[in-house]
Amino acid sequence: MRMLLFSWLVFAWVAVAATRSHTNNWAVIVCTSRFWFNYRHVANALSMYRTVKRLGIPDSQILLLLADDIACNPRNAFPGTVYNNADRALDLYGESVEVDYRGYDVTVENFIRLLTDRFDPDTPRSKRLLTDDRSNIFIYMTGHGGNEFLKFQDAEEISAHDIADAFAQMYEKRRYNEIFFMIDTCQANTMYSHFYSPNILAVGSSELDESSYSHHADIDIGVAVIDRFTYYNLEFLENVSRTSNLTLADLFNSYDSEEIASHPGIRTDLYQRDLSDVLITDFFGNVQEVEIDSSKPRGLLSLLNQQIKQAK
Amino acid sequence: MKLPALYALVLALAPGGLANAYDERLDITPLTGEHWLVSFDFNLSSAVSHHHQLFPRVLEGVLASSNASELHLRFGQGYWDADNWGLTPNNGANVAGTGVELWARIAADSYPDAEASWFSLANSLSGMFCASLNFIDSAHTTSPKSVLGAFDTNHSLYLFHGSLPSEPVCTENLTPYLKLLPCKGAAGVSSLLDGHHLFESQWQSMSIDLSVEDGRLHLRQSIYAVLHVDRTLERRINPVPEPEPYEAVKCDSSRDYSNPQNGICYPRIPGIGEINVTLSDLFGSPIKNGACLSKITSKSPQICLHIPSDNWSVTASDELSPAIKSVDQICYVIPPDSDFDLSIHSETRESVLPKTPSPILASRHLVGWGQERGGFHSVYKSTSGDSPVSFVTYEVLPWFMRVYLHSFTYTLFDSAGAEVATGSFSASNVSSDIAQLLYYKPAQPRVSPSHIEMLLTIPAGSKLVTMYQFEKSLLYYNEYPPDANRGFDISPAIVEVLTDSSSPRAVFRTTSSLLSLPTPDFSMPYNVIILTSTVIALAFGTIFNLVTRTFVYAEDLPKQSLAKKLRAKLSKITSMFS
């Protein structure tokens, strides 16, 4: 009797797993650079923030980490704004922005804690990544990096192994359904080279020994305003709407290494789905799917417990 | 059964009546011809209940979980020029210093319990207001003894204060701040608040004061900003400031050599002459429809201009007539059904109302040189001509400034600038009538800050200078922030002017200071590692060679003939096979 129940349980779980899709979306957007001259990295991060917000992920499900205050920096000739283009048409800071970690709070330790959800009990909910096994997470990082590392605030660095291990822990703790990892930094493709957990799709801006370059500068702001890789990503993503059928394959096909001035890398070996089936809104948008709880394995477990009690 | 029904009826019949009282207002006061103070005030009083019509539920949760009976939060940036602008609005009661500041009164059975609630309070507020308030730990926490309302302390209540002077204030702090308002910043005077205009100001301050009294929750939110009118107006035409073309430069015709036709022009001092400005010019939009407000309160929002009415004229949109008009102010009640704008005009904008002078002017600066020691030098000037002024100062210094208690001295100068009195006021000499050290708690490295409270009295028209010395500590390598060479921000001192108990105290804060600490060369450890490795490798290689080899002179070697050598090799080979 028990054996039969157990096999039924396994079968049901496999059936659910096979048809599983995500029920919620989260985004973690990190700019690891401090100082005014790294304006473009903040603009990179805010470009992605704008996109996920525009496509429907609420602020409560976006974790924005900015290592310095650029918008209200005394050097900023346009207080309260961050622009990603010298035409200054699009103010990325806007009128409503929620920065969850800022300044000295953006550290390697806090980033790993955020991914693995190991926190002090006093940490507020808005600073936590409260995902489950049905969450699709978009993780975007930008800053100064090198072969298998990314600098945080000029003071410390995170290595490719650290992120890979954090993802592995997330997988073990069933904290995600799928992860889309995007990174814009020099030698970015080395950052995802050590990932080993399933269902992770990774994109980087440049190969080993290759720099990622800025796109252009604004002479009134006085510094470069955006990096090439993010600029062309944003150019594509601006045409995506909440109901769009564009897929990640379309996004990746739009990459032109001449324009980007480096060779973006795409790692798909850990990812199950065909990229031409994966909607951009699967990661950048917020799709709410409601499911009845009884189909979940947890419901079956309680059923099993009941059966066992009755058998006794 | 009857009572709840009656309660519901009362709620339904009297929106904004018994359960909630809400009002908001905007005051515009030209301080000088070019600097205008705008003050936004939002007052909400709500009965403590589980129904939250207006009172932000998140804040009540924070109060409940931390057992706080009072909570004060301040965000501020910029410099308030007390010399020219006088006392800060509302006697400074709701005004922020530089950075972020938090204080709260917490009910608990014991100090450790209260402290734990305080840290948890700071953490939850950090998530709510997008500020790194979670950095308020024991090394940033003090319990004020004679300022911030500490004098009416109850024994089961603990007062905690913490400030982070290096915290920036920006749109991400304003966004959650506006969401606490009943109309979320979409209607009423709060619809004028927008990060781009607010953070362009010369000085700005945002405050939240929350208290529980007589079974009601009181929430007061105030935003003050000093706008530079000319710059704000120019920004609309010319986003990037550029020098004016010669034809547009206004010349000062009062100079006798002025002759613009022949190219002799002394530019006119800004902030005088004609001005013509609307609310939309200053804030980017008119006040938006107050329909949301009319649902929740019977009091319509008010906007008041504090101007001498004979030199200024004000016109409201739709020819609305003012609710109050007197020699020094003009007020309008904002209609609930349409957008509202004001047009303000003056031929002589430099004629403004006389300012409320600050009873004392205070400035504090770091003195000394070198990497080892420094000093704090505070100057207090009395502005009143007839009576002495007494005030308390509250200073919190980080633990890495080790204060020398014996070095506390003061010097008093009379109105002519001559030295009148000088003395020291360490703990052993508390009875001076000029300077008293009320409270001093030395810092404990990495655990608690230095906490200094002084009671000072200046005779009318005099100037008092207080001084003390400190030693700079070295930090651990990993305690330095990423931008250690910029320096370390020191919290502003709080100054409260004592008055007779009936009137509120005037409060203000000095500017924050930037202390430069001895910073190591952060690449030094790597250089040391590389250098020592090289030295070790060289030394090891040489010594290893010396101990494992035998050195002999070439001529001391026994001479061997070729045949002998071959024989030796052969015997070696044969021995291998045998």
TrEMBL record, chain A:
The keyword Signal applies. One of its GO terms (cellular component) is GPI-anchor transamidase complex. Residues 1-18 form the signal peptide. Gene3D superfamilies: 3.40.50.1460. Pathway: Glycolipid biosynthesis; glycosylphosphatidylinositol-anchor biosynthesis. GO terms for biological process: attachment of GPI anchor to protein; GPI anchor biosynthetic process; proteolysis. Pfam families: Peptidase_C13. InterPro entries: GPI_transamidase (IPR028361), Peptidase_C13 (IPR001096). The active site is at 144, 186 (nucleophile). Keywords: GPI-anchor biosynthesis, Signal. One of its GO terms (molecular function) is GPI-anchor transamidase activity. PANTHER family: GPI-ANCHOR TRANSAMIDASE. Belongs to the peptidase C13 family. This is GPI-anchor transamidase. It comes from Tortispora caseinolytica NRRL Y-17796.
TrEMBL record, chain B:
The chain crosses the membrane at residues 524-547. It comes from the Eukaryota. One of its GO terms (cellular component) is GPI-anchor transamidase complex. Keywords: Membrane, Signal, Transmembrane, Transmembrane helix. The keyword DNA-binding does not apply. Pfam families: Gpi16. This is GPI transamidase component GPI16. Residues 1-19 form the signal peptide. The keyword Cytoplasm does not apply. It comes from Tortispora caseinolytica NRRL Y-17796. One of its GO terms (biological process) is attachment of GPI anchor to protein.
